[in-house]
Amino acid sequence: MFHNLIPKTCLVTSSIKAAATTYRFHLLRGRTLATLTSEMSLEQAKKIAAFKAVDEYVRNNTVVGVGSGSTVVYAVQRLAERVSKEGLKLVCIPTSFQARQLIIEHGLVLGDLEQHPTIDCAIDGADEVDANMVLIKGGGGCLLQEKIVASCAKQLIVIADYTKDSKLLGQQYKKGVPIEVVPMAYVPIKNKITSTYGGKMVLRMAVAKAGPVVTDNGNFILDWHFPTSEDINWDMVNRDIMMIPGVVETGLFVKMATKAYFGLADGSVIERSA
What we know:
By secondary structure, the protein is α/β, with parallel strands linked by helices. The chain is built from six helices and 13 strands. The chain is about 40% helix and about 20% strand. The model is unreliable at about 1-30 (pLDDT under 50). The strands form three sheets. A six-stranded mixed β-sheet has the order 2-1-3-6-12-13, sandwiched between helices.
């Protein structure tokens, strides 16, 4: 009865507003669900790759190198589960402050290279892996310690999700090759690499502080956005860059990886051997 007291124009306007609100809610809800589903599938892909690698390569009474990054979180989780359920005796060698904290938080035995210079297997992530098992690592700034640990390992096992699998480096990872450098030399190094190989060098800047990123070792990082090509000899390029005075290490891992596990969104895993 009260509808008769309300002008028709008001009723129409209210209906339009209600419909518009409902539409916006469903549109927002749809986008949110799609985003969540995508994120969940990506995390699940990381988890299944990490779990499979740990199950297949970690044995009792061994020394394990623990890499850095989001995928390694699941590897440490699985290591802790196996130690608890199977009574495995492991010593874990970290590649970064993050890895060290993960080892401690999960109650695993923390070791170092002074006591354990030979590692049975190292499990680490990668920013990109090409068809020849050349890796780009160092997106998180831990490339030097990651490469040291990898070089001490009998086997380097890579764990990643499907977005890290490429035919050529640079196809999917667009942030370039990280190069750790002594701070005083970053400008000459930048000029030498671009004049020799082209591309663009960018000094990595910090997010929560003014100025450049400083690594765990007190160095700067240059990200080299290289020209993409099928003809790049990454072994030669890596050796040439390492010869430049002031270069501490590169994020190119050439002829180091033994096997790579790529988790897919559907729950399966692609394996690739060197």
